[in-house]
Design brief:
There is one protein chain. It contains three helices and five strands. The chain is an alpha+beta fold and 108 residues long. The chain has a single domain, classed as Beta-grasp domain (Ubiquitin-like (UB roll)), CATH 3.10.20. It has a five-stranded mixed β-sheet with strand order 2-1-5-3-4. A hairpin with a 5-residue loop joins strand 1 and strand 2. Bound molecules: FE2/S2 (inorganic) cluster. The site of FE2/S2 (inorganic) cluster has 14 residues, from loops.
């Protein structure tokens, strides 16, 4: 199984490097498997926002388009919650080019 390594910053601001993200997972699934506190209550269907996190700018651009369903959920976040690089991590598919991405877990 091919995997890449990313860095995750948790809600306490602690940086965890070397977090593995396997090819068959969404970013949310990797975070959950690695025991980060992501509820993912809708199971990855872009309808709950509990997987909301922030990507570093380069990874945000690499991660590709935000579809309509995800955009609707992001639009429902408050101004304080949302940032320019906000994503629903269940909608971010694995991509080799995301190696080294820095993911900061969103507030909840
Ligand atoms: S898990 Fe619900 S929006 Fe991502």
């Amino acid at each position: 199984m091919t995997s890449i390594e990313i860095t995750v910053i948790d809600r306490e601001g602690v940086e965890h490097s070397g977090v593995d993200w396997e090819e068959d997972e969404s970013l949310m699934e990797s975070l959950v498997r690695n025991s980060f506190p992501i509820l993912a209550t809708c199971g990855g269907n872009a309808s709950c926002s509990t997987c909301h996190s922030f990507l570093d700018q380069v990874s945000f651009e690499t991660a590709g388009e935000i579809d309509e369903d995800e955009a609707d959920v992001l639009d429902s976040l408050t101004e304080e919650e949302r940032e320019p690089t906000s994503r629903l991590t269940c909608q971010v598919p694995w991509d080799e080019d995301l190696e080294g991405a820095v993911v900061r877990i969103g507030p909840f």
